[in-house]
């Protein structure tokens, strides 16, 4: 039965370190192995490794002129959006473009462009600063370029709630559909934080793993030996659609986005609330919005960064909501932390879990932190009969967001 306020998920697009495309990413995530390796962009830094999205040639797929115009975070968004639209069986030349929106989450955005162009200015050569710096660098261009590429002329915006940005984008898109403003929304998130300044800044905060001797083993969500997260790049886009519109097209949804919730910790500018208060409230709000109870949820796709503070706070939040938290996984063990892209990628993976009845394992979980009291899926995928699942995100500034997804 379709939840009364749900919107349909009719298409998925993924560009991640696990693979180019949703099918390739899903297969690698089920394998449960890390993609982290030494990153030439970060050479000479204290943390010189990341998870990199490869396996495609952007210039061939987008064309040389467009590639030169777009920063990496926007390239990833356009490619993921194209796949999502094709997966949904949509023809952009035939849709009512004024009823198609784009909402994407972005956090780190165009740090590579900033570094290159500011260096030219610092060298006393303003004449060498690219005239494309502004259109390449401003975060809204991820959504703007997707709209341009696909001819989507409805609401077009970017959400920025740090590492919860992708999940926040799904919530905003859901509300646009519920309000009747749009028939379709291309919703998700994208980021490319593989830049020296980003890596240095997070390292100075003590947030990154320093396992230079073992990059593949560095991202260890919920493991007793975790020491920080690993930077990753990627984009995830979901086609969200009014249920009646999907039915009229004769399309069977992959899943439903049944509810969402967002809260603020108002606790600390970088650290989460140690008891997980804000995240727990976001999950409860999402459940109420979906008309479901905690016992209806069979799986949690966790934020699971692999930092001491986040994993502890997230576990506390789950214990606040659930008498016994359902099986948990974190894809960040495999693909690292994709910042603004994370929530959308993880929601897409949750949709695939609902469809296939499989939960991907958390990579690098060798010695589970027993103090967390969680049933974390590890080593191999776990087969579960799933009717509903929750995907959650948190970010600096005390941002929390959760979406409830249900089986079609």
From TrEMBL:
Keywords: Acyltransferase, Transferase. SMART domains: PKS_KS (SM00825). InterPro entries: Beta-ketoacyl_synthase, Ketoacyl_synth_AS, Ketoacyl_synth_C, Ketoacyl_synth_N, PKS_Beta-ketoAc_synthase_dom, Thiolase-like. Residues 4-407 form the Ketosynthase family 3 (KS3) domain. The keyword Nucleotide-binding does not apply. Belongs to the thiolase-like superfamily. Beta-ketoacyl-ACP synthases family. This is Beta-ketoacyl-[acyl-carrier-protein] synthase family protein. It comes from Kitasatospora purpeofusca.
């Amino acid at each position: 039965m379709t939840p009364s306020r749900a919107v349909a998920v009719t298409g998925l697009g993924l560009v991640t370190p696990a693979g180019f495309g949703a099918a390739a990413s899903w297969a690698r995530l089920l394998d449960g192995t890390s993609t982290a390796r030494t990153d030439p962009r970060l050479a000479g830094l204290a943390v010189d490794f990341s998870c990199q999205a490869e396996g495609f040639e952007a210039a061939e797929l987008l064309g040389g002129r467009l590639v030169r115009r777009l920063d990496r975070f926007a390239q990833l968004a356009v490619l993921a959006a194209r796949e999502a639209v094709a997966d949904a069986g949509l023809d952009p030349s035939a849709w009512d473009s004024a009823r198609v929106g784009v909402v994407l989450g972005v956090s780190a955005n165009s740090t590579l462009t900033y570094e290159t162009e500011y260096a030219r200015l610092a060298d006393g050569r303003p004449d060498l600063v690219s005239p494309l710096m502004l259109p390449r660098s401003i975060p809204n261009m991820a959504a703007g370029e997707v709209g341009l590429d696909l001819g989507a002329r409805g609401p077009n915006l970017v959400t920025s709630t740090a590492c919860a940005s992708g999940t926040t984008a799904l919530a905003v898109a859901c509300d646009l559909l519920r309000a009747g403003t749009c028939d379709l929304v291309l919703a998700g998130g994208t980021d490319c934080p593989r830049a020296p300044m980003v890596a240095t800044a997070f390292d100075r905060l003590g947030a990154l793993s320093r396992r230079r001797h073992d990059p593949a083993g560095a991202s260890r969500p919920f493991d007793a030996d975790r020491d920080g997260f690993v930077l990753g790049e990627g984009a995830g886009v979901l086609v969200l659609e009014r249920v009646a519109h999907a039915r009229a097209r004769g399309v069977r949804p992959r899943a439903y986005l049944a509810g969402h919730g967002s809260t603020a910790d108002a606790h600390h500018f970088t650290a989460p609330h140690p008891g997980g208060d804000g995240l727990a409230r976001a999950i409860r709000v999402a459940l109420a919005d979906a008309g479901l109870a905690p016992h209806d949820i069979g799986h949690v796709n966790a934020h699971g960064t692999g930092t001491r503070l986040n994993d502890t706070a997230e576990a506390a939040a789950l214990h606040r909501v659930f008498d016994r938290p359902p099986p948990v996984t974190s894809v960040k063990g495999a693909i690292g932390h994709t910042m603004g892209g994370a929530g959308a990628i993880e929601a897409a993976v949750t949709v695939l879990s609902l469809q296939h009845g499989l939960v991907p394992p958390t990579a690098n979980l060798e010695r589970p932190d027993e103090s967390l009291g969680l049933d974390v899926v590890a080593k191999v995928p776990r087969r579960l009969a799933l009717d509903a699942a929750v995907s959650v995100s948190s970010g600096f500034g005390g941002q929390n967001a959760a979406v409830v997804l249900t089986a079609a």
